[in-house]
Amino acid sequence: MRYRHSTFAQAASAPVGKATFRVPTRGRRPALAAALESAFDTAAPPAFDTAVETALAAPVDRVPAASDGPMLAELQLDPELLTGPVEVTGITQVTHDVKTFELRAGWMTAVDFAPGQYVTMRIPELGLERCYSISSAPFGTNIFTVTVKRVAGGAVSTHLHENVRVGDQLHVDGPYGLFSTSFHRAERHLFLSAGSGITPIMSMVRSLLARQGGLGTDIVFVHSASTPLDIIFRAELEQLAEVAGVSVTILCSRDSEAETWAGRRGRIDASTLAEVVPDAADRETFVCGPGPYMEAVRPLLAEAGVASARMHEESFVFATSPADRLAKAGARAKAAGAGVVGGTGVSHVVEFAVSGRVVDCDESTTVLDSALDAGLSVPSSCSEGACGTCKSVLISGEVEMKHAGGIRPKEIAAGKFLPCCSTPLTDIVVER
């Protein structure tokens, strides 16, 4: 999964990480203000700054109470971070291939996340990790939900649908991501989604409606589905359509066997967009869905006059095999004139403390790519600085990190970094 600001004129180019800053040697605490300026918009709400200050000042560990359960009692879990085992407290069949999992973080008083963010879910028995958007709004409890579509051939989604039951435990890490109304404040919103891309959008819409405090609501929500049978959160969308200040449009490409669709048909296009949201250029816009949908929507928004700075998107993109990742990295390096991975730039020594391996890495190559090129096995998933899977500790030295929300300010302050989106500025020693 990745987040980026869309640049319409360069839609085919690789996304650029939103946050860019140096991660110092462990033990040297970076200035919070500088990290926030780089990580989030300058218009970030003061409440968020306060929350981060509180998180950085909070103690790292606590001993879970016996009431948390035997598994949690054996762990040292940070009450400020959603990282650890969560209990499945409810499962709802949303559509024929979509389920919502209600999860409880027993060691936390309240799960603190920005609507639209996601968690990385780890399935140890499969040796796999996947990112799933939080579909609930942050209501100040230690319960949250993720809504998962079963994907044909998808090992993790199939496992969740077929094997997970109420009372089971899953491991999550997060929340991550910058795709949120909390980081891009506005009075008027446009939400565009397709398929399971509705999950982070619904979290944001639910949050906006719950926190209006009597203020006017101005939301346009356009959702696309294959058939009526595939409309996720259909009943809630129909209820939202009755709320003052909320406009909901659902498009279906075709009928289902049991229902002839009476609403708008086909895929989203310029005429539909102009009709349902003629003032799109004046709205903060959030888009989420499959790759082809995203590719189709970008030029439509550009034609409608939506500035790239006001268009935010999230797509589900996962890394392929290490060999494929290296091949792509090599192609990028060659295109840039560097020749190959580990090319002609200034080179630094990267030492992996646990394995004792030492590799060379130039300033144009990520720490992860240099490790994979040397044959080291390093856990990774998104490859875009979004999921947090490759997170490690920088024991010494400095790197430049361009991440996409996959690491928190508190973790950076503790000397952690993401090798997949970090390049060395000096010789470095990495924990793993």
Would you kindly provide a written description of the structure presented here, covering whatever features stand out?
With 432 residues, this protein is of the alpha/beta class. It contains eleven helices and 21 strands. Helix content is 23%, strand content 27%. It has a seven-stranded mixed β-sheet, with helices on both faces. The protein has a six-stranded antiparallel β-sheet with strand order 6-5-8-3-4-7, with helices on one face. The chain has a five-stranded mixed β-sheet with strand order 16-15-21-17-19. Helix 8 links the parallel strand 13 and strand 14. The longest helix has 14 residues.
Proportion of residues in β-strands = 25-35%
Got a strand count? 21
Low-confidence residue ranges: 1-19, 26-74, 338-343
**How many separate helices?**
11
How far the N terminus sits from the C terminus, by CA atoms, comes to: 23 Å
* Major sheet description: 7 strands, mixed
Describe the protein's topology.
Elements: E1 2-5, E2 19-23, H1 32-39, H2 46-57, H3 70-73, E3 82-95, E4 98-104, E5 118-123, E6 128-133, E7 143-149, H4 155-163, E8 169-176, E9 189-194, H5 198-210, E10 219-225, H6 234-240, E11 246-252, E12 264-265, H7 270-276, E13 284-288, H8 291-303, E14 311-315, H9 322-335, E15 347-352, E16 358-362, H10 367-373, E17 392-396, E18 399-403, H11 409-413, E19 416-417, E20 422-424, E21 428-430
Parallel strand pairs: 9-10, 9-13, 10-11, 11-12, 13-14, 15-21
Antiparallel strand pairs: 1-14, 2-18, 3-4, 3-8, 4-7, 5-6, 5-8, 15-16, 17-19, 17-21, 18-20
